[in-house]
């Protein structure tokens, strides 16, 4: 049975698969700006600090908050990326490119995959989130779902439906480098620190990307294909509501080296996330509505 041994260095990760025929190595070399990495870690720390402690209470007179995130203005060109590895698995339709899934605009200009949350809420209902946002699959060399929500101190379950080696690399509020050599084998990790986690594949599938938020309270949601979101059982009060989007621009590329194919490949670097914020007042047993218009301006 194959045996995995990780070797971690300052600027790259090496995973070696040892079997009776020798060693098959995967080396992904990354040229990373230390300034950008520091800025990302500071943002993660700021998020965790801003949320503070959360207390579960009985919410007997809670209201609801619902709304939409919609796109305003010209729609940017979709970001596609060439399939440089395992095309028969990653793009069985033979299109040779895949969508980076950074901006999905649906019916009536609704923006999917936008994270919406209440800022600095200190008490409310129990921490429960949709189960499908806590389970990650790697299918056709895509992360499904693209945006994950995992409660603090809960487990993220991961698996790969693909018959190829994927390696999930996480940085931010969680740091892991996890190989998936076997199909449909579930691996779990507990997420103990709240904040943002960036996911990518260190297995040579450089276009794979996703974002995960480890959250300290239940008032988080990810918009659907129509850009809709909703919170229920919100204690009466006035809150700041934040819409967060991972960003839809391509800032550049960085070099990565895949030892299995002995090729240098280009990994996309994305523009910074974007946030919008409003105030909302929730009255007892009453609905509230908050809508956001987002765009390039």
Specify the number of helices. Answer: 2
Helix content: under 10%
Name the shape in a single word.
globular
Low-confidence spans: pLDDT under 50, at least 5 residues?
1-43
Let me know the CATH homologous superfamily: Cupredoxins -  blue copper proteins
- As a percent range, the share of strand residues is over 45%
Largest sheet: 5 strands, mixed
Oligomer: single chain
Radius of gyration: 20 Å
Number of E strands: 26
Give average pLDDT, whole number.
Answer: 86
Q: Which fold name fills CATH's third level, the topology? A: Immunoglobulin-like
Sheet/helix structural class: mainly beta
CATH architecture type: Sandwich
Distance between the termini: 54 Å
* CATH C-level name: Mainly Beta
What sequence of helices (H) and strands (E) makes up the elements? EEEHEEEHEEEEEEEEEEEEEEEEEEEE
Number of discrete domains:
1
Order of adjacent strands in the largest pleated sheet: 12-18-17-14-15
Characteristic terms for this protein:
single chain; 297 residues; mainly beta; Immunoglobulin-like; five-stranded mixed sheet; four-stranded mixed sheet; 2 helices; 7% helix; disordered N terminus
Characterise the protein shown here.
The protein is mainly beta and 297 residues long. It has one domain: Sandwich (Immunoglobulin-like). The chain has 2 helices and 26 strands. The strands form 8 sheets. A 5-stranded mixed β-sheet has the order 12-18-17-14-15, covered by helices on one side. Strands 5, 20, 25 and 26 form a 4-stranded mixed β-sheet that branches. A 4-stranded antiparallel β-sheet has the order 19-8-21-24, with no helix packed on it. The chain starts with a strand and ends with a strand. The relative contact order is 0.23.
């Amino acid at each position: 049975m194959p045996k995995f041994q990780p070797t971690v260095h300052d600027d790259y990760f090496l995973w070696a698969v040892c079997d009776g025929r020798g060693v098959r190595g995967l080396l992904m070399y990354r040229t990373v700006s230390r300034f950008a990495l520091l800025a990302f870690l500071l943002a993660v720390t700021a998020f965790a600090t801003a949320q503070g402690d959360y207390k579960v209470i009985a919410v007997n007179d809670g209201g609801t908050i619902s709304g939409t995130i919609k796109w305003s203005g010209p729609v940017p060109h979709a970001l596609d990326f060439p399939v440089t590895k395992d095309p028969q698995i990653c793009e069985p339709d033979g299109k040779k490119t895949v969508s980076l899934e950074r901006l999905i605009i649906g019916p009536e200009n609704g923006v999917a995959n936008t994270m919406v949350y209440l800022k600095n809420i200190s008490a409310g209902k129990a921490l429960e989130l949709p189960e499908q946002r806590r389970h990650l699959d790697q299918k056709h060399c895509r992360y499904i779902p693209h945006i994950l929500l995992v409660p603090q101190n809960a487990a993220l379950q991961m698996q790969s439906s693909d018959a190829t080696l994927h390696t999930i690399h996480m940085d931010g509020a969680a740091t892991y480098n996890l190989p998936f050599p076997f199909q449909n084998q579930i691996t779990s990790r507990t997420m103990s620190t709240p904040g943002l986690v960036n996911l990518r594949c260190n297995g040579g599938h450089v276009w794979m990307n996703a974002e995960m938020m480890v959250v300290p309270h239940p008032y988080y949601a990810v918009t659907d294909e129509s850009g809709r979101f909703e919170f229920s059982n919100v204690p009466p009060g006035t809150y700041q509501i934040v819409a967060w989007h991972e960003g839809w621009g391509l800032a550049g590329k960085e070099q990565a080296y895949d030892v299995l194919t002995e090729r240098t490949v280009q990994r996309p670097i994305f523009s910074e996330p974007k946030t919008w914020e409003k105030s909302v007042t929730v009255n007892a047993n009453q609905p509230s509505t908050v809508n956001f218009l987002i765009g390039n301006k």
